[in-house]
């Protein structure tokens, strides 16, 4: 039986791919041409007298490319690692709900993944984690204005609320096809950032700090029995393992 997925599993795999493409591949290429250039110099200094300049030029060009490639990869790896760590933090926070709920991480939904899914007596929740690097000084505020998210006044490029709603629709359709009726609440969490209050009911999505999840979910009415929670969890678990 295949194991369930862990928080940040997709990002961990992507980090591996990026590290190989951006670090290992150019480093190996650079070392290879350096060895070739060294061999040519050796041949030049000893019995035969080939011209090593051509290979030296090639080695220099490859070195420039390798350095550029590695430097451009550093930022990407840091960004992915930040997202992975954020998902792990939220995943650890969600463990407190396991008393009466089931928690799933990195749930595949087509070409993307739902960071976390919570199935409990108070309903079903898809939780999208957005981890952003904090400024060295000053406030860390997220605002929802006119249907758009802003972090410290800067509009976020990817609208997490649209993404969260799409994930909730996918999960709702998944359970409908499995013969279950269940409303799925989309949630976006920003670890370490303060979210200014707004009319989340009108927006159709919760935008929260992770620590606010407990109060919001606890404030919901009980919708599912223990057996209904278990049945839905088994259906999603079977899908993930497959």
Which structural class best describes the helix and strand composition? alpha/beta
- Placed side by side, the strands forming the largest sheet appear as 1-2-3-7-9
Report Rg.
25 Å
Question: What does the average pLDDT come to?
Answer: 85
Q: Give the strand tally.
A: 9
Largest sheet: 5 strands, mixed
Helix content: 40-55%
Which blocks of ≥5 consecutive residues have pLDDT under 50?
A: none
Kindly report how far apart the N and C termini lie.
Answer: 9 Å
State which percent range the strand residues make up.
15-25%
Helix segment tally = 6
Q: Report the principal-axis shape.
A: elongated
Query: What's the order of the H and E elements?
Result: HHEEEEEEHEEHEHH
Keyword list:
242 residues; 6 helices; 4-stranded mixed β-sheet; 9 strands; alpha/beta
Could you characterize the architecture of this molecule?
This protein has 242 residues and is α/β, with parallel strands linked by helices. Helix content is 51%, strand content 19%. It contains six helices and nine strands, in the order ααββββββαββαβαα. The longest helix is centred in the N-terminal third of the chain and has 42 residues, at 53-94. It is elongated and about 85 Å long. The termini are close together. The model has no long low-confidence stretch (mean pLDDT 85).
Give a summary of the structure in a few sentences.
By secondary structure, the chain is of the alpha/beta class.
Sequence-ordered SSE layout with sheet pairings:
Layout lengths: L8 H37 L7 H42 L7 E8 L2 E9 L2 E7 L11 E5 L2 E4 L2 E2 L4 H18 L6 E6 L4 E2 L4 H4 L2 E3 L4 H6 L7 H16 L1
Parallel strand pairs: 3-7, 4-8, 7-9
Antiparallel strand pairs: 1-2, 2-3, 4-5, 5-6
Helix pairs in contact: 1-2
């Amino acid at each position: 039986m295949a194991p369930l997925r862990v928080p940040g599993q997709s990002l961990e795999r992507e980090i591996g791919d990026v590290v190989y493409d951006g670090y290992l591949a150019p480093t190996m290429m650079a070392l290879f041409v350096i060895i070739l250039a060294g061999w040519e110099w050796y041949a030049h200094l000893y019995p035969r007298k080939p011209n090593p300049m051509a290979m030296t030029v090639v080695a220099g060009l490859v070195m420039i490319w390798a350095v550029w490639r590695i430097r451009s990869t550093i930022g990407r790896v840091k960004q992915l690692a930040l997202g992975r760590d954020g998902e792990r933090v939220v995943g650890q926070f969600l463990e407190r709900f396991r008393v009466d709920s089931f928690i799933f991480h990195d749930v595949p939904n087509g070409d993307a993944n739902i960071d976390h899914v919570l199935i409990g007596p108070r309903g079903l929740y898809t939780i999208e984690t957005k981890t952003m690097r904090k400024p060295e000084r000053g406030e860390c505020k997220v605002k929802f204005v006119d249907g758009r998210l802003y972090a410290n006044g800067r509009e976020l490029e990817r609208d997490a609320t649209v993404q969260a709603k799409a994930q909730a629709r996918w999960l709702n359709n998944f359970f409908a096809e499995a013969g279950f009726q269940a409303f799925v609440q989309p949630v976006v969490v920003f670890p370490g950032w303060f979210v200014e209050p707004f009319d989340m009911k009108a927006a159709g999505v919760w935008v929260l700090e992770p620590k606010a999840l407990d109060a919001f979910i606890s404030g919901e009415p009980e919708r599912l029995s223990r057996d209904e929670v278990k049945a839905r969890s088994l259906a999603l678990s079977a899908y993930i393992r497959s």
